[in-house]
């Protein structure tokens, strides 16, 4: 068997709601320090990944409203129509190579400090903002919640105008208000948005449905969710074996795609010292067993044999990758063209993580051109 036939399964198309991914290689959302300030550099970087064979190329977190501004971190921004052209640079660059473009809409809630906009931060309950900063978030009332749903809807419509094929609802990493509502660790409301799991999941479900109604005719709607907060049985958070499963079962067929990971970020992007390739398998597989929709999972995938094995064993449908796509934007094409020995493998050193958010764009020990594509191609 030649390599290419052995790996043919990786190059099968996958239908995701109304769109079709050209293959199973899926660059999951990752920030990079270019964000809204360097849209041309960013578009060039994402375009190179599409050129390298990634069938789906996503943005990083993209803020939907100034009341959830995460300055000084430099991520995407879609506050109003004037942000559309900058994002369109990316969708054009990705479409040029026949790939799909995905956008991760985020409202950070308790994790947003609004240093730039200076607006008050919202949360499910009155609480200190996250990250050890001495600021207070205000509990949302019903009017605020209605407004927030409209902001999500407006951002979804703007995403479609910018040319995105996949629009995310994001409840991961403890960095989204939708997850703050979900988790008992942040939500002690006593109205219909607090208490039982059904109530805590209400806002997430509403936003998901509103997004589908707004753009679901032509865009796929993905749900990125942390199925386990890894806080243990007594930690009060979401556990895959308990509420994590119940949430998936409750929403199973609503999104067109499940993008599964674990929280918080340090558990999700674990270094190679602590986690081996495919380390999230048990979580991804569990979600796959609860839904008929396609599932994308992550786990620092660099070996095509591991990828094939995960698909054949029914763990996932799409090979999600952040770090491996940073280390080698041409990874899919190298597999396709039998050039395995030239793959630059992610070594899980996480220098990307330590540099992705600040004024200096992302770096990678395996790929010196990362963040400099605009200059060096
Ligand atoms: C540099 C970097 C930035 C990231 N930024 C985001 C982000 O903006 N939104 C998000 O949902 N996940 C983000 N992640 C998490 C990844 O999407 C992914 O879930 C995680 O890294 C595990 O996948 P991997 O093993 O393929 O890297 C980021 C990861 C890295 C390495």
How would you sum up this structure, described in words?
The strands form three sheets. The protein has an eight-stranded parallel beta barrel with strand order 3-4-6-10-11-12-13-14, surrounded by five helices. With 377 residues, it is α/β, with parallel strands linked by helices. The protein is built from 15 helices and 14 strands. The mean pLDDT is 94. The longest helix is centred in the middle third of the chain and has 20 residues, at 142-161. The protein has one domain (3-376): Aldolase class I (TIM Barrel, Alpha-Beta Barrel). The chain starts with a helix and ends with a helix. 33% of the residues lie in helices and 16% in strands. Bound molecules: flavin mononucleotide. Flavin mononucleotide (FMN) binds next to strand 4, helix 12 and helix 14.
């Amino acid at each position: 068997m030649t390599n290419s036939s052995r790996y043919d399964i990786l190059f099968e198309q996958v239908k995701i709601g109304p769109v079709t991914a050209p293959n199973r290689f899926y660059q999951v959302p990752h920030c990079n320090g270019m964000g809204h300030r360097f849209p041309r550099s960013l578009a060039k970087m994402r375009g190179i990944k599409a050129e390298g064979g990634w069938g789906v190329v996503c943005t990083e977190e993209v803020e939907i409203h100034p009341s959830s501004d995460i300055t000084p971190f430099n991520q995407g921004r879609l506050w109003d129509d004037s942000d559309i052209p900058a994002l369109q640079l990316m969708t054009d660059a990705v479409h040029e190579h026949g790939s799909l473009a995905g956008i991760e809409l985020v409202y950070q809630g308790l994790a947003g400090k609004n240093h730039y906009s200076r607006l008050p931060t919202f949360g499910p309950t009155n609480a200190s903002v996250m990250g050890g900063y001495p600021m207070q978030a205000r509990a949302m009332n019903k009017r605020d919640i209605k407004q927030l749903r409209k902001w999500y809807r407006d951002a979804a419509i703007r995403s479609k105008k910018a040319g995105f094929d996949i629009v995310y609802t994001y409840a991961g990493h403890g960095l989204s208000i939708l997850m703050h509502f979900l988790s008992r660790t942040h939500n002690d409301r006593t109205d219909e948005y607090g208490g039982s799991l059904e109530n805590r999941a209400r806002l997430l479900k509403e936003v998901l449905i509103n997004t589908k109604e707004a753009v679901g005719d032509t865009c796929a709607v993905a749900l990125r969710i942390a199925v386990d907060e890894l806080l243990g049985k007594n930690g009060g958070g979401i556990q895959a074996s308990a509420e994590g499963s119940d949430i998936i079962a409750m929403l199973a067929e609503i999104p067109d795609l499940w993008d599964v990971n674990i929280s918080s970020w340090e558990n999700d992007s674990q270094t190679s010292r602590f986690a081996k390739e495919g380390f999230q398998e048990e979580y991804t597989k569990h979600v796959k067993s609860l839904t008929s929709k396609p599932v994308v999972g992550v786990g620092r995938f660099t070996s095509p044999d591991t990828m094939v094995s995960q698909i054949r064993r029914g763990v996932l449908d799409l090979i999600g990758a952040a770090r491996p796509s940073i280390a080698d934007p041409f990874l899919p094409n190298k597999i396709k063209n039998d050039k395995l020995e030239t793959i630059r493998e992610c070594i899980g050193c996480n220098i990307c993580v330590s540099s992705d958010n600040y004024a200096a764009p992302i770096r990678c020990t395996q790929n010196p051109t990362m963040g400099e594509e605009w200059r060096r191609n």
